[in-house]
Structure to design on (285 residues):
């Protein structure tokens, strides 16, 4: 964070009644330990059924590390250029890497991965036939297909607004919805920079970052106790008062946002710039 951003953040916090300079400096450094391997997952190590006496000579390996699954798009992106980005995002549930070729695609992957209702994301799924104006058919590959927990599947095309007319993408998505969705998805949508903003991507990326850390039960119970007694919208900094470990509070807040217990009042802005949330008791199971 630049010095200018630090000053703006401090002024914002002071305007909300929170002065971080008044928080006592902790004697020890507080770390947010991860809840598991940063990449991949740990699963029980299974041995084939063999003679128990033979097993006695084998080393004890109760668990083994399994790497993140590689991406499996139907087609790979071209080589990197100055105007595009290349990379992958790991879905926290699938434990699989998903590719992207632009900043917009990267942000939509963050947003989809940080949504608990999205259980599966497919990058560049198999192309489908689309019927053109003259009745002819051509193949089109949509960028992503997201599957929700209830089984509903959404095909997502990502394109900046200034390229939509050039690619005639509005009409293509309309024709896909009109007659090309069978066995592919329940709906196809088009998303641009108007919906896929950097602020929304930042919020989602931060949620994914904190999902890697262990739950601090004391901080979680404290926030739930305070939030459940407040009606309407309130500031996150109201939850931070009385604690000298704001990092644990921030981690707990983002985890509760992921679970739907805390709902951002301004989801289109960075949460650190508009730190207002409300309590959703229906999300507590």
């Amino acid at each position: 964070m630049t010095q200018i951003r630090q000053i703006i953040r401090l002024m914002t916090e002071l305007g909300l009644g929170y002065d971080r300079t008044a928080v006592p400096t902790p004697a020890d450094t507080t770390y947010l330990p991860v809840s598991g391997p940063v990449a991949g997952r740990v699963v029980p190590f299974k041995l084939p059924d063999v003679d128990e006496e033979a097993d006695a000579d084998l080393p004890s390996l109760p668990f083994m590390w399994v790497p993140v699954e590689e991406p499996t798009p139907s087609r790979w992106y071209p080589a990197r250029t100055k105007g595009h980005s290349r990379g992958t995002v790991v879905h926290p549930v699938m434990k699989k890497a998903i590719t992207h070729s632009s900043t917009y695609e990267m942000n939509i992957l963050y947003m989809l991965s940080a949504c608990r209702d999205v259980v599966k994301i497919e990058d560049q799924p198999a192309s489908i036939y689309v019927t053109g104006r003259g009745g002819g058919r051509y193949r089109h590959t949509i960028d992503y297909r997201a599957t929700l927990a209830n089984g509903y599947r959404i095909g997502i095309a990502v394109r900046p607004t200034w390229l939509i007319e050039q690619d005639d993408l509005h009409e293509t998505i309309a024709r896909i919805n009109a007659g090309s969705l069978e066995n592919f998805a329940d709906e196809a949508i088009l998303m641009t920079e108007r919906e896929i903003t950097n602020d929304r991507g930042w919020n989602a990326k931060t949620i994914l970052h904190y999902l890697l850390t262990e739950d601090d039960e004391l901080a979680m119970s404290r926030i739930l106790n305070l939030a459940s007694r407040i009606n309407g919208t309130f500031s996150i900094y109201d939850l931070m008062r009385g604690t000298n470990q704001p990092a644990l509070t921030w981690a707990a807040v983002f985890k509760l946002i992921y679970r739907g217990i805390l709902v951002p009042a301004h989801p289109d802005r960075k949460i650190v710039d508009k730190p207002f949330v409300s309590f959703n008791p229906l999300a507590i199971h």
About this structure: The mean pLDDT is 85. DSSP finds nine helices and 13 strands in the chain.
